[in-house]
Design brief:
Blueprint (H helix, E strand, L loop, with lengths): L2 E6 L4 E7 L6 E8 L3 H11 L2 E8 L11 H14 L5 E5 L3 H11 L4 H4 L2 H19 L1
Parallel strand pairs: 1-4, 4-5
Antiparallel strand pairs: 1-2, 2-3
Helix pairs in contact: 3-5
Length: about 140
């Protein structure tokens, strides 16, 4: 078995999370500037055994696509051309940012630390991955 890499795509920053090789535990990996995302993923896939990539699917409350889906679709085309051998799944990511912020509060992070948007993105990616693992 290989790792599953999760992506919480953003136009400025993108949060990443990954499973262990047994696909049991979802852990935050890092946050990357979005313009560096494809080179980062390509390098990561060369050094780690990645079996699948999971990308957040942002939806509105009425189940319609979020405005950011346009940017994600463009990224997915580039990702498919860069790493055609790795399948990509999508996971509903509604409320992950709010849940990530609440997780930061619950874990006792100070107010200054909770303002770290990169950390919110990384936790959001972890929540997306955990949701994917739970649905399997």
């Amino acid at each position: 078995m290989g790792r599953i890499l999760a992506i919480d795509y953003g136009t400025k920053r993108t949060g990443l999370a990954v499973t262990d090789e047994m696909q049991i535990i979802a852990s935050g990996l890092t946050t990357v500037e979005t313009k560096q995302l494809l080179p980062f993923i390509k390098t990561y896939v060369l050094t780690e055994n990645v079996e699948k990539i999971v990308v957040g699917l942002p939806k509105q409350m009425d189940n319609s696509a979020s405005e950011s889906e346009v940017y994600i679709q463009k990224f997915l085309v580039k990702l498919g051309k860069t790493l055609p051998q790795i399948p990509v799944d999508r996971v509903d990511e509604r409320f992950t940012s709010k849940m990530a912020f609440q997780t930061m509060i619950d874990s006792g992070l100070k107010k200054k630390q909770r303002k770290n948007k990169a950390l919110v993105d990384e936790i959001s990616a972890t929540l997306i991955l955990q949701s994917y693992l739970s649905s399997k």
